[in-house]
Amino acid sequence: MLALASMTSVQLGLAAAVGISAQIGADGAAWIRLAWAGVLMAVIVRPRPSHFTRRAFLACVALGCVTAAVTVLFMQAVTRLPLGTASALEFLGPLSVAVLRGRGRTLRWPGVAAVGVVLLTEPWSGGTDPVGVAYALAAACCWAAYILLTQRVGDEVSGVRGLGVSMPVAGVVATLVVGPGTFDDLTWPLVVAGLGIAVLLPLVPFTLEMLALRRLTTAAFGTLMSLEPAIALLVGLVVLGQVPDLLPVVGLVLVVAAGIGAERTGGRDDAATPGDREDLTS
Fold it and tell me: I need a labelling partner for 239 at 20 to 30 A (CA). Which of 35, 158, 159, 282 fits?
């Protein structure tokens, strides 16, 4: 349920960010979300050096860099591709984690999800923007690293203190890389809208994902992310008016089936950790 709520929040946030990207560009839309999320998480969590070992702190910094990369790259992809297609291509990252980390029955679900992704993207049609595909595939690589780092940070740092470091780092990285090209286009309405979108993406979903990865293996979580392209397809239809063809709908059914199968077989033996019970301000 945590992962499902996270994915829904992600897709709603992306749909809302498409409008902002038309005014300040894809990089600008990614930057304003990350900058606000970094400020909010630093204020809410108030991380202290005593909360982290050196290894845990470095993992948080690495997670922040990967978070900035996946956000900027994927925002570039969704400005060139339908939301469902971009999400399906990005899902290849979590799918790779599921395949590499999977054992026994878990491997059947990545296979089912892979077929669904192919039907969602329809690579044989030749109508897909190759630059958009490249951005989505780069985001997929970052997303795989994000899953592994998120679980490591979640296991080593109690509560969501890790996000108190990783999100500000992501905001700083995005500001240094893409912020200067966006400042001149900012208006107060865009700043306020960016705050609202930052809550939908990345603040809420990244928090939920860290908590979910305490309860699921990376293999199960990676396959469970197959639900995200399906959610993206539905959000694209309802919010953005992107009407899918028959084969993408069949692909949606397959990835949903894979996601359900992953959830039923993917619990972690060490799911209950002390950090789960700590609140945001502990």
Answer: 35
Mention every residue, 6+ apart, whose C-beta is less than 8 A from residue 76: 26, 27, 132, 135
Per-residue pLDDT tens digits of the chain, which is 282 residues long = 888 888 888 888 888 887 788 888 889 999 999 999 999 999 999 988 888 999 999 999 999 999 999 999 999 998 888 887 888 888 888 878 877 776 555 567 778 878 887 887 777 776 678 899 899 999 999 999 999 998 899 888 877 889 999 999 999 999 999 988 888 888 899 999 899 889 888 888 888 888 888 888 777 777 777 777 778 878 888 887 887 788 878 877 887 777 667 656 555 555 544 444 344 334
For 262, the token pair is 């992953």
Q: Supply the Cα-derived Rg of the chain in whole angstroms.
A: 18
Cis status, amide bond into 202, omega within 30 of 0:
yes
Q: Alpha carbon of 245 to those of 79, 208, 211: distances in Å?
A: 20, 32, 35
CB atoms within 10 A of CB 98: 32
Alpha-helical segments (H) within 79-107: 83-90, 92-101
Residue in 280, 2, 219, 255 with CA at minimum distance from that of residue 121: 255
Residue 254 in 3-state DSSP? Answer: helix
φ, ψ at 145 (rounded to 5°): -65, -35
Separation between Cα atoms, residue 167 and residue 40, nearest integer Å: 9
Q: Are 113 and 106 in contact (CB under 8 A)?
A: no
Predicted TM-score (pTM) of the model is 0.80
DSSP for residue 103: -
DSSP 157: S
